[in-house]
Specification:
By secondary structure, the protein is α/β, with parallel strands linked by helices. Among the domains are: 144 residues, Ribonuclease Inhibitor (Leucine-rich repeat, LRR (right-handed beta-alpha superhelix), Alpha-Beta Horseshoe), CATH 3.80.10; 64 residues, no CATH class. The chain has five helices and 15 strands. Strands 1-2-3-5-7-8-9-11 form an eight-stranded mixed β-sheet. Strand 8, helix 4 and strand 9 form a beta-alpha-beta unit.
């Protein structure tokens, strides 16, 4: 009769022990903090890959910097609470956030810099919805697909400076309702109407952010190289408004060159504009021409009175 209660007691002890083991297994083990003698930013500023990761525990969260890819000790499940991650000297020419960042769903700040990354594969996935700062500067990005940030609903700061971008279409940033700061300097922009959205900030209700370094954005390509982006875009926008392109004139206006003016201000730009009204069947010249038109082409018309 006594054996049965004893047997029951033994079963209860084993069950409790197993339950305790399961409970302990679900508690994250605190990550081992590796003492570092340099800051994370200094670590990634080193000119050569370090082939290791370093970490530091701050009051605002745990931070890790990895050079030349991840390393085994930082792929453990212990790091799923990691909030700040810096990657530099990435070993590949592409980066797949869905694969590489899956162990770190709690990230709020991500920096990928000083690498030869030319392309972001896919999109930054929904599990990074808490991300507030994304730094993709000093890479070799040649284009950014419009949908790459579509799930970044909490992003407040986006740094795309010092890449090889020539254009950035508005849909790319329309997915970022909380964006406050955008950084774009350090690349050769194709200065044409594709970038007119820069002139509408912050008046456009779709864009509540500010381009923090717009005064350092430079035009590149075959036209206006070395000229500041925003003043050139203003000239192009004014030309589009002033050009007599509607009937009956149907002229075509081009901003051929831009030279520095002589008003004593280094930022003053002097446009050189061609208005082509050739072979339009005109009997009189357009009533109004764009400001500072330097060349007017009217051959092939029936104009009898010039003034």
């Amino acid at each position: 009769v006594r054996a049965y209660p004893e047997k029951m007691t033994w079963k209860m002890d084993v069950s409790g022990y197993v339950a305790l083991l399961i409970l302990l297994a679900t508690i994250p083990t605190p990550p081992i903090v590796v003492a570092v003698t340099v800051k994370l930013s200094e670590f990634c500023a080193l000119p050569t890959p370090q082939n290791k990761c370093i970490s530091v525990n701050k009051t605002d969260g745990y931070r890790v910097a990895c050079s030349n890819g991840f390393h085994e000790e930082y792929l453990a499940e212990d790091y799923f609470l990691l909030q700040t991650l810096m990657l530099c000297h990435w070993p590949l020419d592409y980066f797949d956030p869905d694969v590489s960042l899956r162990p770190y769903p709690k990230l709020t700040k991500l920096m990928i810099t000083k690498s030869n990354i030319k392309e972001i594969i896919g999109e930054f996935p929904p599990f990074l919805r808490n991300l507030k700062t994304l730094n993709l500067s000093h890479l070799n990005l040649e284009r950014v697909k419009p949908s790459v940030f579509r799930y970044m609903s909490s992003l407040e700061v986006l740094d795309l400076s010092y890449n090889k971008l020539n254009y950035l279409y508005p849909p790319t940033i329309e997915y970022l309702p909380k964006l406050k700061q955008l950084w774009l300097a350090g690349q050769s922009w194709f200065c044409k109407n594709d970038l007119f959205w820069l002139l509408h900030l912050p008046k456009d209700p779709l864009f509540n952010f500010k381009v923090m370094d717009s005064n350092r954005m430079i035009c590149g390509g075959y036209k206006y190289p070395g000229k500041p982006v925003i003043p050139v875009l203003r000239l192009l926008s004014d030309l589009e408004k002033e050009c007599p392109s509607s009937p009956p004139d149907n002229c075509v206006c081009t901003l051929d060159h831009i030279v520095h003016g002589n008003k004593g201000a280094s930022h003053y730009l002097h446009p050189m504009i061609t208005v082509d009204c050739s072979y339009r069947g005109l009997k009189m010249l357009p009533k109004k021409l764009p400001y500072n038109t330097t060349t007017l082409l009217v051959q092939g018309n029936q104009v009898r009175i010039l003034f």
